[in-house]
Every structure is written in structure tokens, then in C-alpha cells.
Amino acid sequence: MRAGEALVEDREQREFRERVWLLLHRIPPGRVCSYGQLAALADRPEQARLVGRILAALPADSRLPWHRVVSASGRITSPAATEQRQRLEREGGWVWDGRIDLRNHRWPTS
DNA sequence: TCTGTGACCGCGG
DNA sequence: ACCGCGGCCACAG
Q1: CA distances, A22 to each of A61, A64, A73, A77, A94 (Å)
Q2: Which is higher by pLDDT, A11 or A66?
Q3: What percent of chain A has a predicted confidence (pLDDT) above 70?
Q4: Distance from residue A65 (CA) to nucleotide B12 (C1'), in Å?
Q5: Which end of chain A has fewer CB atoms < 10 Å from its terminal CB, N or C?
Q6: Beta carbons of A88 and A65 less than 8 angstroms apart
Q7: In the complex, which nucleotide's C1' lies nearest to the CA atom of residue A57?
Q8: In this structure, what are the phi and psi dihedrals at residue A22, rounded to the nearest 5 degrees?
Q9: Of A97, A98, A27, A109, which Cα lies nearest the Cα of A69?
Q10: pLDDT in tens, A20-58
């Protein structure tokens, strides 16, 4: 691979990451979005895993609502599960059995 | 280089 | 509803 191509990949990577941050910022309290959904909205539908990595790389003191991201099945899969559940419950209290009621709290609204 | 490992997902069975 | 599997791909050892 030529050097130029690597640079382009790099740039696209950063831009994707930025779009994810922006989208994350828009999720209102009391609603959740899945990793895959976020990836799709950020124009890279196959990159759900990458979204996970992006969230993992957020600084500990980030003010972005990372806790409003759950798996497509509504399950909390983050390593900080306890913290995430607490935050979600503080916002709406609809976490049961490590799972969210996606029907009523999905974002964006379908 | 090669391999294993994820804050994932959709499709079967 | 719950696995297992393959696809996805950045990253560490």
C-alpha cells in the first residue's frame, strides 16, 4: 500500500470518529441508541465494533453520554455496566435484568 | 507477519 | 428467546 492511501484511511477514520461523537452528543436523556445504529448514522453501517472502540477510547471525564449506547438487543455490554445502569436509571429507570426497553426509548425515533 | 481479542450484528437452528 | 457462526476490523503481543 502506498503512503498516500494510508493517510486517506487515517483521515476517514478520524472523520468517522468525529461523526460518532456528534451523534452521541445528540442522543437526548431518557433515550438510547445501539452501536450498529450509530455506525449506520455515521455512514459506516458495518462498523458497529469500531463504535465500541471509539467509546472505549473516550476520556474518563468525558461529558459525552456514552451510557446511552447499548447493544442492538438492548443489553448493556460495556465494561462499566454498573455505572451505565445507574446513569440510565437516573434518567428514566427502565433497566430490567441488564436490559433496556428499546420499544419506548430508542433514538432516533422511528 | 500472524494471531487472538473485543463496549457488535444479523442470520439461522 | 437463546446460542453459534461468520463477517467486520483496529490493535497488541
Answers
A1: 17, 9, 23, 22, 25
A2: A66
A3: 94
A4: 34
A5: C
A6: no
A7: B7
A8: -60, -50
A9: A27
A10: 999 999 999 999 999 999 999 999 999 999 999 999 999
Q: Is the peptide bond before A29 cis (omega within 30 degrees of 0)?
A: no
**List of A residues 18-77 with CB within 7 A of strand C:** 46-50, 53
Buried b (16+ CB within 10 A) or exposed e, A7-26: eeeeeeeeebbebbeebbee
Residue corresponding to grid cell 422511528: A110
User: Is A82 within 7 A of strand C by CB distance?
Assistant: no
Amino acid at A22: L
